[in-house]
Amino acid sequence: MVTGAARGIGRAIAEQLAHDGLQVVATDIDAAAVAATVDECRTQGLDMSGEALDVGSRAAAQALFARIGPVDVVVNNAGIASPMLGFRDIDPAAWRRLFRVNLSGAFIVAQEAVRHMASGARIVNIASRGYLGGAGASHYVASKAAVVGLTRAMAIELRWSGITVNAVAPGMVDTRMLDDFTVPMRRSLENREPSGAAAHPQTIADAVAFLCSGQAAQINGQVLLVDGGKSVGMPPL
Ligand SMILES: NC(=O)c1ccc[n+]([C@@H]2O[C@H](COP(=O)([O-])OP(=O)(O)OC[C@H]3O[C@@H](n4cnc5c(N)ncnc54)[C@H](O)[C@@H]3O)[C@@H](O)[C@H]2O)c1
User: Fold this and answer.
1) pLDDT tens, 17-46?
2) Ligand 1 centroid vs 5 CA: distance in angstroms?
3) Is there an atom of ligand 1 within 6 Å of 29 CB?
4) Does the 8-228 domain belong in CATH 3.40.640.10?
5) Closest ligand 1 atom number to CA of residue 204
6) Which of 89, 167, 192, 233 has the greatest CB tally within 10 Å of its CB?
7) Domain ranges of the chain
8) Which atom of ligand 1 is nearest to the CA of 170?
9) Any idea which residues carry the catalytic annotation?
10) Is 56 in the pocket of ligand 1 (CB under 6 A)?
């Protein structure tokens, strides 16, 4: 089960997991968009169904898992960003909106999912390189740092049930989330990426698929940064 799977990184993850042989439930707050995505994937022969889900709704998550039954993999991908805003200018409503989706969404979906999971199940949370810090989006940075904290804390508790919990932290990825930036701002940000460009969503899907595979059974409570190495340090002068 993948959240925010109508487009972007979530869609790439849903497609990759289906290619890997999983029966995928793609979910998104945008019911029409996820239905269209699922239709396209099914025409390619992928085993995928679609469901509307707002990850901030406990009742909706409960109802969804009651319908789909036992679940082996949950990918908490749904997330929102916001236009660049200085710390002083972030209003309480924007703060709450972001935390409702990015943090509470992952918490609610994971909490409801584990009731339907057995030993060997996997949870992967999509964080962001931004969790390390950055100017112009304190609320986004804080929400993703909290996702990492949640991941690590859940991993400790759930390891006794044989469920692993990891996070993938992407760098800049070419999706509609980048529409929040003006064109010059986006160009400037891309120039700072090691590859000089935003990555393809597939690069994140590959990392998630690895964490969901048999080879990753011993990996638990980790944050896998997928950013071409930008987070490791500064470029040469
Ligand atoms: N694109 C990047 O550069 C980048 C970098 C780091 C991390 N991420 C993270 O990757 C994840 C996916 O982002 P993306 O770039 O694919 O963005 P996107 O905007 O292209 O897609 C996000 C999807 O989430 C859905 N969504 C939004 N609110 C929702 C809700 N309340 N419930 C369910 N679905 C909801 C949207 O409808 C959309 O389909 C997010 O968690 C984001 O923070 C993205």
Assistant:
1) 999 999 999 999 999 999 999 999 999 999
2) 8
3) yes
4) no
5) 10
6) 167
7) 8-228
8) 6
9) 140
10) yes
